[in-house]
Design a protein that fits this description.
mainly beta; 3 helices; WH-like_DNA-bd_sf; OB fold (Dihydrolipoamide Acetyltransferase, E2P); GntR family transcriptional regulator; CvfB_fam; NA-bd_OB-fold
């Protein structure tokens, strides 16, 4: 099925001076302009193309790479503002419009915003909106505690970051759950720490304890190997120093050192930790 606002693999059915025409099924023949036609393309060739409406409302194909597809959230930069609205760079020659009635706050040229890409019901054109609440489910998601999820950070608050969970639900990533640099618009792997009675989802970037320790053990051993088998970051090290080097809490770090010590891989001394030589 041919889908507007998405990538489609379509067959070339006709060559012309303007480019090539592709079999668009119910949409008929769709032009891929000459400047986007790969060398060696002939009738019968199958091409991976993105479909959208051009400035003349004609359905057109491109081999350019769109930064997001219909129904997706993305962080995009404003490249122009005029009487029609704000225009975003989304990787295609034709910029993506954010109409004024779809702007939560007035958009400024040069700044980046998290937007949702939708299709206008009347014009069928693709457009974007910063009114994200319209496109995120009001119903709480059904999550298990410490379930692995995909996150998109949308804005910073006094509590931490507001995030869209699995492209569908709202969640909050609190400051005390962040042990590395993050930014608005960043996509991350996170975990559901708790689902509140009101349906709100509290998030963390820290994996379940056992998984976190397994991952950190490898990092600690590599850190020691890279530093002649010694590190000042022992079990009494400053939490900020641990966070700076390993991007984890002191609690997780101490648990990891204990695991490595019990396994006979390190020694824990008053001045730091040492890598034990293999027998």
């Amino acid at each position: 099925m041919v889908r507007i606002g998405h990538y489609n693999r379509l067959s070339v059915v006709r060559l012309s001076d303007y480019g090539v025409f592709l079999d668009g099924g119910k949409f008929g023949h769709i032009l891929l302009p000459r400047k986007y036609v790969p060398a060696g393309t002939e009738i019968g060739s199958e091409l991976e193309v993105f479909l959208y409406f051009d400035s003349e409302d004609q359905l057109i194909a491109t081999t350019q790479e769109a930064k997001a597809c219909l129904g997706e959230f993305a962080l995009l930069q404003v490249v122009d503002v005029n009487q029609a609205g704000a225009f975003l760079d989304w990787g295609l020659d034709k910029d993506l419009l954010v109409p004024y009635n779809q702007q939560k706050v007035p958009l400024e040229k040069g700044r980046h915003y998290v937007v949702y890409i939708y299709q206008d019901r009347h014009t069928e054109r693709l457009a974007a909106s910063t009114k994200l609440d319209r496109f995120v489910s009001e119903r709480p998601g059904r999550f298990k505690r410490m379930q692995k999820v995909d996150l998109l950070l949308t804005n910073k608050t006094d509590l931490g970051f507001k995030a869209i969970v699995n492209d569908s639900y709202w969640g909050v990533l609190y400051h005390n759950e962040i042990f590395r640099d993050v930014r608005v618009g960043q996509r991350l792997t996170g975990y559901v720490k708790w689902v509140r009675d009101d349906g709100g989802v509290d998030l963390t970037l820290n994996p379940p304890a056992a998984e976190a320790v397994d991952q950190l053990e490898e990092q600690v051993l590599k850190h020691l190997a890279d530093n002649n088998g010694f590190s000042h970051l022992g079990d009494k090290a400053d939490p900020d120093a641990i966070k700076r080097v390993f991007k984890v809490s002191k609690k997780v770090y101490k648990r990891t050192l204990g695991s490595l010590f019990k396994a006979g891989k390190i020694s824990i001394d008053s001045d730091g930790i040492r890598l034990k030589e293999k027998n």
